[in-house]
Amino acid sequence: LATGLARLPGHLDVVLVDLMTAIRSCHVVLLPMAGMDTRGSVQSYYDDAPIVLDLTLSSRGLLVLTGVARPELQELGAANGWRMCEIGADDELAYLNSVPTAEGAVRLAQDRAVKTIHGSRALVVGYGRCGITLAALLKGMGAHVTVAARQPGVLAKAFAAGHSPHYVGELSRVLGSHDFLFNAAPALVFTEELLVCMRRDSVLIDIASGAGGVDYQAAKRLGCIAVLAPSLPGKFTPETAGHILGRVLPRIIKKIFRRRGKMKGRRIGFALTGSYCTFAAVMPEIARLRDSGAEIVPIMSETAASTDTRFGRAEMWRGHVLAASGALEIIDTIALAEPIGPGKLLDLVIVAPCTGNTLAKIAGGITDSSVTMAVKAHLRNLRPVLVAISTNDGLGLNAVNLARLQSSKNIFMEVQDGNYCTEIWRHLRGYIRHARAGARQGARLSIARASRRSRGVGYGAPW
Question: Given pLDDT bands bounded at 50, 70 and 90, which one contains residue 311?
Answer without folding.
Answer: confident
